[in-house]
Design goal:
About 65% of the residues lie in helices and about 0% in strands. It has helices at about 1-5, 15-40, 55-60, 65-75, 85-95, 95-110, 115-135, 155-160.
Length: about 170
Amino acid sequence: MAQVAGQESTVSWIFTFGFILMPGVVVGVLLGWAEHLRTTGGRRGWRWLALSPFLFALFNPAALAVALLGTAGGYAVSRRGPLWARIASGLFAVAIIPLWSVIATAVGGPRLALDTPRGAWIAVYLYSFLAVLALACAIPHRPVVAVPERPTPETAEVLSLERGALPSE
């Protein structure tokens, strides 16, 4: 935040931790849980975790754009669903690139103009953080990994025979 706000940047419990960091932790935990569920066979309704970035908007309505861009980007790179919908989502998600060049100075004044070093740096921050969020938001859309069955004593003996072990008597 200090990169964007500059010298006027302050840290407070409620705004910094309550409205920025805490929702980020919760969204990260939910998307991490989605990866755990995905790799352990999935569960009923687990794909709803794709909407977890909207918790950002619950804590801070101004962050609705972040949630929209992240979820749209996640759907676009997920390789699931109709191609036309993924293309439309991808175009929506990358629209921030030209849009930021137009609104950057309105957000942070002339110091965030993209033709300044600080403005270029903030743009890289913004694009990279949104790209990471989009990749994380793709997790609930990815295919479920099948959980291998645990071998029973009978199948364990067959597996050991296939590996060249001598049969037990």
